[in-house]
Write a structure and sequence with these properties.
globular, alpha+beta
C-alpha cells in the first residue's frame, strides 16, 4: 500500500510531500524548503506530522485535515480506504 500527499504551504515554493510506502519501506516527508525527515515506521511519521504541522501552515487547510483523517484511518485500520 502506498499513500502520498502533496500540500501547498505558505512558507515555500515547493509543496510538502508526505509518503507512506509500505512495499518499499519508505516513510518520509519532504518539507517546502526541500529538507526532509525519514522514519522507520508509518506510526513514527504520523506522530511527527501531528507534532510539527498545523492546518494554518497550509494554503488549503481542508486538504491538511483530509490527510490527517486518512492517516488516522491508517493508524486504526492499517488502510486509508
Amino acid at each position: 500500500m502506498k499513500m502520498e500527499f502533496s500540500l501547498s504551504s505558505f512558507d515555500g515554493a515547493l509543496p510538502v510531500e508526505v509518503t507512506i510506502d509500505e512495499e518499499n519501506g519508505r516513510y518520509m516527508i519532504r518539507k517546502s524548503d526541500s529538507s526532509g525527515e525519514y522514519f522507520n515506521s508509518p506510526n513514527e511519521l504520523i506522530e511527527w506530522v501531528k507534532a510539527h504541522f498545523h492546518e494554518e501552515d497550509f494554503c488549503h487547510p481542508d486538504e491538511f485535515r483530509g490527510m490527517l483523517d486518512k492517516l488516522a484511518d491508517y493508524e486504526l485500520n492499517g488502510s486509508y480506504f
